[in-house]
Amino acid sequence: MSEPRHFRRFLILWAVLSVVATPIVVLVAAPGLPPGNGSSEASGQVTDNTVLLGIATPIAALMVAYFAYALITFRRRDSEPDEGVAVRGNRQIVVVWLVVTGAIVLFAAAYGSDRLLAGTGAGGGQGPNPLAKPSGDSHPLQVQVIGQQWNWTYRFPSFGGVETPQLELPVGQDIELHVTSLDVIHSFWARQLGVKADANPGVDNVAYVHPTKIQSFDIRCAELCGLFHGHMFQTGQVVSDFRFQAWIRQQQRVYAPATKKLNPYSPSYLPKPLRRAG
Amino acid sequence: MRSPAARALLVLVGVAVVAVAATLYISRYLRSPTPFAAAQTGPHRASLTLGTTPAVGKLGHNPSWVSYLVRTNGHWDQTTVFDVPAHSLVHVTIYNFDGKSGLRNPFLSQVQGTVGGKMRVNGKPMDVIPPAASSHTFSVPQMGISVPIEGLKGDAPHQCAEMPCSLDKAHETITFTFRTGKPGRYRWQCFVPCAAGFIDGFAGPMQTIGYMDGFIHVI
Q: What is the CATH number of the domain that holds A249?
């Protein structure tokens, strides 16, 4: 009995599996991926995850098909010897493998670099001199995010420098977040908005976000920062511009006594005392 | 010369001893102190009396560490885990025997989340203090509460360096009332970098439950 054409059968199995699985993953599963569509940056991240999943699905299908085919077709039968014949060296397969995997890696690197700098920086911190900014005619709302062990507060330089213990943002506006820390390294993570930016002491780390949906969002610290790191969470709100204006006016009124005691607004702060009796 | 089996047994016993010691140390470190129940003073009313000291003295495992304590029947106990009733008014009195350290974030110099947005310092109503005069804070971020604790002047007479401190020693008396909501477990902490001798003033007692951090169980 002649040996069946294993490679052709395997390719057909892989092709069928890929054709079925890829549309399901891309069209059904990927749109529901985190962080959702709460901001332009978050939507961009969902798009990136969809593209990467679209590439990864046929690769995963290749592995599944290969193992399934090999385990079933080449399983040991009672009449066969313990070990199969060693097969060594196949220049064609090696070349194809190197070319295909090299192309995928290079594409992922180029795509990732392009997406990182496209738009307003994909929601990541860009340091004090950001490369990816909103368009020139945009006037982003500046919000300073201040991390300290173990809480976040927020300062609004265009509203008299008022500092607030909660964060509300207006929908449909570019927001320029200036993330900094008063002590150790924290990381400001507004999950549903697709923002994650390191908060370093003495550093002004700028990140942009454009909220597109009225919703609440989780704020967490994503950098292990001590005893109550796990408790360093809040719930922020994206609200209408009307409600934001009312909220910020109320914050100015409520925190007027503290505002008088604040240091002048600065991109970062190096507060004293650094050390007590030490 | 011992046999290989004897040496192996010796190593095993040594490893077991170290493992048990490490487990006991870590479990002791992680274990929360026994909760202290706020005194019920009426229907939906409770009171809590606390103290802050530059050094906990013989009342704590680390005598030189700054600490919060509770006061009950005229005695000080070292715990920072409190039970308070839900949907109630909790009246807090804090006797501060410590000096001024200064706030890292001046925003916390304002009283937040108390009834009327005020506290009383030695009977005088206040809503804000100079940030540099702050000795500690009593802050429960998830309940929106933060109260700055004004420190003693450096030249105040009859200061108490370590617990137990009697009330005839120099101290500031801070009182305020807050309203509890639904049951839950809320962490509280001091935001002043007041840990003497530690880098940035925020290690040691600032990172250890039972000293400058704790939990409020709303039950």
A: 2.60.40.420
